[in-house]
Amino acid sequence: MRSIGDAIHLVSGSAGAGQLKGAGARKVAHSDDKLTTGPCDVDPVRHAELRRAWDAEAAPHVEFRRPFDVENLRAALAGDAPILLWGTRAYSDLIWICSALDALERIGVERSRCCLARPHSDDPYVIVGMFAADETRGALAAATAITDEQWREGGALWNTYASSSPLAFDEARRRGSSAFPELTTSAELHGAWFPRIQDGRLRLSELDEVLLGSAGDSWRTPRKIVEALPEARLTQLVRMFDAYFHVERLRAWATRGVLERETLDDQNPFEQDRFHMTDRARALLNDGLERVGDAPPMYVGGCRANDPASPWVRIADDAGWRLALHSQD
Hints:
13 strands; about 325 residues
């Protein structure tokens, strides 16, 4: 790598792009479209179509998301400048790295142009945009050529993540990866939105339980709901899964009558609604679900969670947990 200013930098998030520019990067390509929420697909054209349609439906007035497809990437990388792919070991950054490796291979970028920069933190939820400029420069100095194993496993992980079945990605998480050793711990969050079998009963997903349980008996805006969460849960729900997604999820629960929703006259997307719990919400928290489809469906990578047609659930086992189809649904 010649210098930070010579390279084309690929990074997830405006904060990461800002940090790189502050450290001296002149050409940065980034997307605020977190791939840990919303639909994904192994076909890049179909993937881009799904992302744009989902974003237009779910958040038509939110401007910070920018789906970044293969053609955007091809245009950003024109020329022969070195390419620096940035990402930490946090779950959302790991998914970003894998998607980017797959896309780089698809457009035929010369591997010799590419390096990987991975700022390190002991906090498993720290993303690139949270590092200081001197730490960013240190990560640049430590950047390495992307190995054949990283190219191979990164592309494979993306394709399993974007598949309509979550099993292959879950099996990869359980098996572990020498190219991406953080996979086993980072991808614990892959199971956070699947309903769970506990003590023979069907329960809400881990993060749905957190979100509904924080809605409270009094009217609260989404901002107030997440501000009441413990720091670790707030970090998981917002930093790893898109800053706006919890608003969409609260609205989805309201369409099921589980939360009451009132629309407010406010242009701030995090203050446009307020919610409170209903007896139905309390029953779901206390007693669990009768069937998978009792919860509003959502995408986890290429898979649809809470879909009666493919009722995936999280089941505890000796290794922690695994995903399986719910045989009684």
